[in-house]
Amino acid sequence: MKIIRKVGLSDHLDSMGFHNCIIDVDQDESYINYLKLYYSDKSPDNLLLDLRVSETKFTPKKELLEMGFENKTYDMVVIEWLSAQNPKSRFDQNKPQLPGQRRPGLGILKYCFDMMYIVAREVIKDGFMDIPDHMHGAIMYSKKFKFYNPVHEAILQAILRDLSDHSMLDISWGMLTDTVYDEKKGESQAYDPSEQIFYVSERLRRHFNSKAYRSIFSRYYKKKRYRLDYDEMVRKRDRLLKTKQIVDI
User: Fold this and answer.
1) What residue segments make up the domains of the chain, in order of their start?
2) What are the residue ranges in the chain where pLDDT is below 70?
3) Could you give the dihedral angle defined by the CA atoms of residues 86, 90, 96 and 102, in that order, rounded to the nearest 10 degrees?
């Protein structure tokens, strides 16, 4: 609770009408650590934040070593699950529902990042790691996280550059419906989730600032060009939603 107050999260929640917040911390038999934040009482309907993390040793894959990166092992905190929801809000035109999303968010991701940084420093970890299920997750995390693989980071940033006239929702649906096209290759760009990292330690920072990382990123970022076939995306999205609920996609 002290950390939540320090980063300004409690003030933010107070301003939204969520007072008397209650924290529930636990660990299951698989060593997944839980942090749940409720308001008023510990009922599912009053859940605001659900964060689940574990610990792991992260070693780069062979393809990354072949790019010239060092064979190092990092002590990481893995984000197994992170959801923040506003029980008092509903989806509307101004707050559209994202694929896999059950309730509107709280706008607290930046506070969560600040909490992560404090925790990682206190428990002496190299950083936090996540493998986002959806493109919109990768986009939201990209404010603080970078893909360990510079090619994946270049693809993400090039998509954001070239599709800047489209909303995050449209881009996410574009990836889900294979309607974001690599114009140089003339084919759709597959979403290939991999390790997205919020670095804390100096040795992990050196990876992202290395000449090899910056060189590979720059080369791919410059040569990639993307477009979204919006009409095709809408057709495929509407067809998909006839058979599936958006929360299950």
Assistant:
1) 2-248
2) none
3) 60
